[in-house]
Write a structure and sequence with these properties.
Elements lengths: L1 H18 L2 H4 L5 H15 L3 H14 L7 H15 L2 H16 L5 H29 L2 H5 L4 H5 L7 H40 L5 H40 L6 E6 L2 E6 L3
Antiparallel strand pairs: 1-2
Helix pairs in contact: 1-10, 3-4, 4-5, 5-6, 6-7, 7-10, 10-11
Length: 267
């Protein structure tokens, strides 16, 4: 009896890791906000990236900073602009994803996915910055090779440690989620084996052994999965600190009145 109870408690623990994510918890914002969010999600699911991006932009603009739906809306806004795959939409996606990552209730798995997408999005956004630079700054300052700004760049710290930490954190988070999924599968496998054992009037030794083996795997996967998630969150926090530790970091994407401003250059 204690064996079954232990297994049931573990099933609840594994299921709770996924039920606790923001997407599963359900939105608690006002009716108008919820309706606007559902319309934006429906447009995104229908493949209407441009319409979805516009709906998410309007939704996020009117949301309060503490709105319970803001985290999900920022993620949807970034995904919609990412799917448009233009330099301007890439800049919008970067801004939305950075705001999403900074939210304390952001789902770890989504944080990992967003971190992996930012590299390509920032590169695409740079092309928009290069194209719009003559319009937003005096032409001589952009074109003149004798500008003092490039001469100061070698003094900036390398961004390589931040990229390494970002990639490592994403890999650990994804690995932890994978192990928890495997743990859930092992629990189901154990259920099936124990059911066969009970159906045989508790005489099927093979089924009993398979159930116990499945329990052992579920426990191992579960402990390892949670350990990897915890470590991944720590590494992701380190990556965020490395990106934000210095106002003079070599690269940064900063919000401005006209959109995003790229500061610095890639190594």
């Amino acid at each position: 009896m204690s064996k079954i109870s232990t297994r049931r408690l573990f099933r609840v623990a594994v299921g709770g890791a996924f039920a606790a994510c923001p997407g599963a918890a359900g939105a608690q914002g006002g009716p108008a906000t919820e309706i606007a969010y559902e319309r934006a999600v429906a447009a995104a699911q229908a493949g209407e990236a441009t319409q979805a991006a516009a709906l998410f932009d309007a939704l996020v603009a009117q949301m309060a900073p503490d709105d319970p739906l803001r985290t999900l809306a920022l993620y949807g806004q970034g995904r919609a602009h990412e799917k448009r795959a233009t330099p301007e939409s890439a800049c919008r996606a970067v801004a939305a994803f950075q705001a999403f990552i900074a939210r304390p209730d952001a789902e770890p798995a989504k944080r990992a996915r967003v971190s992996g997408s930012l590299v390509g999005l920032v590169s695409l956004c740079q092309t928009a910055g290069a194209a719009s630079a003559p319009a937003s700054a005096p032409a001589p300052a952009v074109a003149m090779p004798v500008s003092p700004t490039p001469a100061a760049e070698p003094e900036h710290p390398s961004s390589m440690p931040a990229w390494v930490a970002t990639g490592g954190g994403a890999a650990l988070l994804l690995g932890g989620v994978g192990l928890l999924v495997a743990a859930g599968g092992a629990v189901d496998e154990g259920d099936t084996a124990y059911a066969r054992f009970e159906a045989s009037d508790r005489t099927d030794a093979t089924a009993l052994k398979q159930g116990r083996d499945a329990d052992d795997r579920a426990t191992t996967y579960g402990i390892s999965g949670y350990a990897m998630l915890g470590t991944g969150l720590g590494v992701a926090g380190l990556a965020a600190w490395l990106w934000l530790r210095d106002a003079d970091a070599k690269t940064a994407v900063l919000p401005g009145n006209g959109g995003l401003t790229w500061v610095g250059a890639w190594p």
